[in-house]
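Internal QA ticket QA-208
Title: Verify multi-chain structure generation after dependency bump
Assignee: T.L.

Test input:
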Amino acid sequence: MKDKIFKFLLFFAACSILLLTAGVIYTLVGQALGTFQYFGFFGFITSSEWDPRAGQENYGALAFITGTVITSLLALLFCIPFSFPVALFTGEYFRGKKIASMVGSVVNLLAGIPSIVYGLWGFYTLRPLIVSLGLSDQGFGILTASLVLAIMIIPYASSLSSEFLSMVPNDLKEGAYSLGATRLEVISTVSFPVASSGILSAYILALGRALGETMAVTMLIGNTNNIPRSLTDTGNTMASIIANQFGEAGGLKLSSLIAIGLLLFLITAIINSIAKLTMKRINP
Amino acid sequence: MKKVLLLVMTVMVAFSCSQKVTNELSGAGATFPQPFYNIVFKDFSDKTGNKVTYGGIGSGGGIRSLQDKTVDFGASDAFLTDEEMADMGGEVLHIPTCMGAVVLAYNLPEIPTLNLNAEIVSDIYLGKITKWNDAKIQALNPDVKLPEQTVTPVYRSDGSGTTFVFSDYMAKASTEWAEKMGTGKSLAWPAGIASKGNPGVAGTIQQTKGAIGYVGSEFSLSQKIPTALMQNSAGNFIEAGTESISAAAKGELPIDMRTMVTNSPEPDAYPISCFTWIILYKEQAYAKRDLNKAITLVELMDYILSDDAQSVAANIHYSPLPETALQNAKAILSTVTFENKEVK
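Actual output:
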């Protein structure tokens, strides 16, 4: 009897998550439909206009899509030189040692810091630095936002990569050592190729995380609704425009913001499934 | 054991009976008057025992909540248009509660006072003036040496009553602004950077040399951020302050109080001044509300319009309503009904 109740509870919990997700998608699509009907799906995603003035409302998502994609990809690029060595350090060179677990937990600590704190750090520390380097007059922009995003996603990329590196079978590595390979050679010819698809999926998940980040980006990107022309130009991202304009929005504007939410949901879902597929290739 | 339990229960019942029946009111809306409302509502609770909760979710959200009948009153920095009034599903009243202003805060450490007018502000936001030592700004400030610093205009990234008041003034005072930018809670901006909320804009200005932006006066006055003197329509350069803001509403006011007092013709008025309103249904018998609730709501409004509450406004950098506005507000309040009978 107890077993049956437990089974039922599990079933109920699992199904309610499915229902919840279906409900989210249903609402997003239902509310976004108004915008897609008005501007057309492709019209909406290829227009970079964002004019909320009454009587001449015109909304397009292109500026925000480019802002999101550029900041996330740059963040991924900036995070590799930090997260990859950390992964090698904790998952290969010092695996199982005290120092490795210390470095590992400090890096994981980065994941626990709320994004508003990263935003404040970027606002008060990184931004003046960028101004004093003469890169821009006010320090806001794609570069500042990407740098902070990069730091935020380091733990996601490094801890998963390190996990995959430490999963490389010892037999393989010992075989390489017995053939006279140096440590660097073992890493580059054995560990890395074996763990490569796992590492790749770690970075894809980190990218997914960067796509949805809102608060820190809002504080640093400048929130201007245009397609950024350079690294120091200001812009806006999908998550950030929603967070900024949701409060006072109504009608077509609200529908457009929800449509942007739906697009963000789609992009993240696609990226997550790519990560899943690549992971499947090593862990069938 | 049972006896003790019985005693405890008796005491509890006795205690709950002895308490006065209290009413709970809830409101939501503009963030601009929130510090004022927080204090006034708390004083009202202390005096009458009725509870008032207020959520600062933005003017638009407040009106939506009132329309959904999830709150007893909404608060807004912009009055409803005739169309919006018709959408409310019942006649609504606008009761002004206090006045405020939008000021232009700037970050030029060596320059303690700065004169500006609508034309220059318009040029800055349109990206036409890019350096502080521009001839137009220098002409208004002959006594100071303006630096060759880049001007960074800052605006609100979120839809906001502050943006509405600011753009309403700008559209009245500058024809170029009226043509290119218009009036609204959010606009399409050709230049500058955006930050969220008054604190965001103020923080960005304080941290960015050469920045200028519009923020609520209650915020700049309490934070002591340097702000520009604005040239009003009489040609005088006026600093935003309790008196100069109230002065903007000295003239004739419409009976329903749905008016913007920006660009006031009064010679000593600060030109970007505004009312903020509490909006409620004229007929209070809706959505299963009882008479007590309606009475409490009218009492609360009475309290906000009292001398006590109005002097609180002045203390925390809002401006009290001038005499005509107060009289009009009281007259509007007296038209509130419950099942078509006057609420007393």
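Spot checks passed. The first strand of chain B starts at residue 24 and ends at 29.
Status: verified.
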